[in-house]
Amino acid sequence: MLSILCCDKISFSHKPQDGCCFKLQKLRIDRQALLSVEPLRGLRHTKELQIGDDYAMDSLPEEWLLQNAASLHSIEMGVAEALRSLPSVMEKLGSLQSLHIERAPLIQSLPQLPASLFKLVIWGCNTTFLKRYESGGEDWGKIAHIAAVDIKAYSEGTYYGDDQSQDFINSNSSHQFVVID
Q: Which long-range contacts (CB under 8 A, 24 or more apart) does 54-58 make?
């Protein structure tokens, strides 16, 4: 595992050779922008990506995702408060099994997701997003193939620690939709 945290002005003194072949089990960063800095930009064999507490993250870099498409099986994003959508290349991540996004109140939609995706967790989205993706919602078809879906929406002004909730549960018990008021 490689963790790079609290390094907003990181730079590297040399440029790695083309086709960087580092094989990482897990890359843990707190700024999505680090994926655009060498040598992280050149990674091609990363299995797990964790981006934590990046309040400015509004997207994921498509080129980096495609470079790691054959090996990337897990993406976790925490505190993605500026995230509005995921890139359309998500469908091309043929090894992706788990996608977990937290505190993404601005997220509006999801692109087509890969058939390999087994688990989708989105906590802290808005209620409009939740209603679009719950069973019978206008975009349910985009996630119906995913075995385990857990989407929780927080009403505006709600604290994340509140425990009042209204559950929307699909007949398939592995799909859970919750609004926390």
A: 54/30, 54/78, 54/79, 54/80, 55/79, 55/81, 55/82, 56/31, 56/32, 56/82, 57/31, 57/32, 57/82, 57/83, 58/82, 58/83, 58/84
Is the per-residue pLDDT at 156 higher than 90?
no
Q: Which are the contacts of 6, defined by CB distance < 8 A and separation ≥ 6?
A: 30
pLDDT digits (tens, 9 = 90+) for 5-26: 445 555 444 454 555 556 778 8
Inform me whether the pLDDT recorded for 167 exceeds 70. no
Asked if residues 91 and 121 have their Cβ atoms less than 8 Å apart, the reply is no
Cα(33)–Cα(52) distance, rounded to whole angstroms? 12
| Number of residues that this document lists for the chain | 181
Distance separating the N- and C-terminal Cα atoms of the chain? 38
Predicted structure pTM score = 0.80
Q: What are phi and psi of 63, to 5 degrees?
A: -60, -45
Whole-number Cα distances in Å, 31 to 42, 78, 128, 140, 155: 16, 11, 27, 31, 26
